[in-house]
Amino acid sequence: MGKGKGFPEEEYMMSGHLACSGCGATIGMRYALKALGKDTVIVLPASCWSIIAGAFPYSSLKVPVYHVAFETAASSATGVKAGLEMIGDSTTTVLAWAGDGGTFDIGLQALSGAAERNEDFIYVCYDNEAYMNTGVQRSSATPFRTWTTTTPTHQTKEEAKKNIMEIMAAHQIPYAATASVAYPEDFFNKVRRAKGIVGFKFIHILSTCPPGWRLPTHLSVRAARLAVLSRIFPLYEIEYGERYTINLKPEFHSVREYLTLQGRFSHLADSEIEVIQQNVEKAWERLVKKAC
After folding, report:
1. Residue 111, domain CATH
2. 123-157, pLDDT tens digit by residue?
3. Beta partners for 177?
4. Could you please report the per-residue DSSP string of the chain?
5. How far apart are CA 275 and CA 138, in angstroms?
6. Which of 195, 232, 270, 280 has the fewest CB atoms lying closer than 10 Å?
7. Do residues 17 and 40 lie in contact, with contact meaning Cβ atoms separated by under 8 Å?
8. In terms of Cα–Cα distance, which of 262, 182, 188 is closest to 228?
9. What is the pTM of this model?
10. Rounded CA gap, 209 and 25, in Å?
11. d(Cα 159, Cα 66) in Å, to the nearest integer?
């Protein structure tokens, strides 16, 4: 991420953080802070990032961080923004940074309330598709037929992954977008765009997790890229719940390579992979129609 590509030289995430090797959530935080700059306050609910940032009174981040309860990312960010406005600070960006458990499940009520009120902050969900910090338990972000410690191979998850982007679109917020650590310029531009919009902004990041996904650490970014290329995790934006823009339209790429890269899918039969392929194609067709 050099100066020649338009990324700021300044780093706001330092060495010494406590993330696992290959963690997509740390790559995402680095990109986000480069886009937002020093005038940023981060609200962190219970999640992997509660640990990654470092133990009090130390932090690997060069911006203020508030650690809050699991279900309160959006409500706490609302309060932080209100406090800044009370002292006349209209320039500092408030960033809620939560995992899929704290977004799709435990924090959905606060998220929905803040979105409905159109609170002026950015909410990022770094989605590693399970409760990774507490031992890889299933969340409603866990995909169909995925292994977790609470959905073992003989009893994998039967339900589809919750469509959090459509939930946010239903709130008609000014801006929602998906982003990937494998596409840094797209990621950076979306966070920078969100910073310039008044009102509630939601960014959904697929965050690779080598331990939870049973993925070799050096393949972390490759897995993130294959998710996009296979259309499992398309890159797109939604404005006010109505205007859809697809940022990348990859040629057909089978889901098989993405799935077989990860041990959490090693139990899948060919017939199950085919079902997943069909579901991905149907979801892509629906998205393309909305973007017309």
Report:
1. 3.40.50.970
2. 999 999 999 999 999 999 999 999 999 999 999 99
3. 203, 237
4. --GGGT--S--SB-TT--PPTT-HHHHHHHHHHHHH-SSEEEEEESSHHHHHT-STT--SBSS-EEEE-TT-HHHHHHHHHHHHHHTT--SPEEEEEEESIIIIITTHHHHHHHHHTT-SSEEEEEE-SSBTTTTSB--TTSPTT---SSS-TTS---SPPP-HHHHHHHTT-SEEEEEETT-HHHHHHHHHHHHTSSS-EEEEEE---HHHHT--GGGHHHHHHHHHHTTSS--EEEETTTEEEES--PPP--SHHHHHTSGGGTT--HHHHHHHHHHHHHHHHHHHHHH-
5. 20
6. 270
7. no
8. 182
9. 0.96
10. 8
11. 34
Q: What is the pLDDT of residues 206-228, one digit of tens each?
A: 999 999 999 999 999 999 999 99
In the predicted model, what is the mean pLDDT of residues 233-238? 98
Hunting for tokens 């953080």 — which residue is that? 17
If one counts the domains in the chain, the total is 1
